[in-house]
Amino acid sequence: MYLKDVGRNLLKARVKNNNEWSALTEVEFIVDAQSASAQNLSISEIHYRPLAPTLEEIEAGYNDRSDFEFIELVNISSRPVDLGSIEFSGGIKFDFSLVDSNRTLLPGERCILVNNLPAFVMRYGDAIDPSLKILGEYDGNLNNDGEQLIVSNKAGNVIIDLTYNDGKEWPESADGMGYSLIKINPEKTISDHSPNNWRSSSSVGGNPGKSDETSFQLWMMENNMQDTLSDADKDGLTALTEYAIGTDPKKVSPESGFEIRVNELEIEELVQEFLIVDITRRVGADDVNFKIQMAQRLNEWVDLIIPTQIIKSINNGNGTETVSYVIGSLNQIGTEMYFRQVLTLD
What we know:
Layout: E1 7-13, E2 16-17, E3 20-21, E4 25-31, E5 34-35, E6 41-47, H1 55-59, E7 70-75, E8 81-82, E9 86-90, E10 94-95, E11 104-105, E12 110-114, H2 117-124, E13 133-137, E14 146-153, E15 158-165, E16 181-183, E17 198-200, H3 216-222, H4 239-245, E18 258-267, E19 270-282, E20 288-295, E21 302-303, E22 309-315, E23 320-329, H5 330-333, E24 338-345
Parallel strand pairs: 5-8, 12-13
Antiparallel strand pairs: 1-4, 2-3, 6-7, 6-16, 7-12, 8-11, 9-10, 9-14, 14-15, 16-17, 18-19, 19-23, 20-21, 20-24, 22-23
């Protein structure tokens, strides 16, 4: 007998002795799949505070926005991953070993857990991909104020431990405006769950079971462009810049996606004037690295070690989001300083 199906295979057998059958015996085999671990699995999307229910949804009995929550996991490895040995043990509760089928993720494949399956199906309807793996409903609700989520294996070892939040350093648009939290490049930031590695989804409702990540190469093809440094509309922005900040390469744009301003803030109970950097970026352009450089002389640029503190992150509703960073106080940096933005591709 050969077991060819990747992942969980359940065999049932019994023996006949004369006219009597033995009790049914069940044995589970995991074929050509590795167990879930901290190196191959990541939480990739959290929809913790969806839009409030519509009148139609309320009439159907779904009275709370929490009914439409979901959380997504992705296999970030090059081999299939079986989830049968893990569970959500902190925040929400869900035991993956109770899932009979579809619990093995192929490389790059995603699955979701939902709060209320009928409510989820009603809201997303035809937008649900038939191949989407919905593994079940979890116990509890995702906390609207943020919480610690823990995934552990049967031995009690923690393989995912992240804490999301609705504070000002986290994407504001995921907190009741209908967008979800998306992990940026989960395969590269697997153990770093800081706010810098999360963004809002590209559309309201998130993208359960799918990625909304774009690529510069595809964008160049769609716009019939070949030169990364070309400037078809003569607005001073290269093709890479237009892609990164979400502007149209064939229409003159007054925006550069980069703004320095001074604002009075209270930080650590001290009110001072601070330099703020506003960076506008295309939602989903996760292959772009944004770097800020500073100089006292225009021929002596150095990378800015900070910013380390985000004070606002908002989805603009037009395919872009603006993230605001505190660089430092005017007393620290002074007024005789130049800044510029440097864009590179992964």
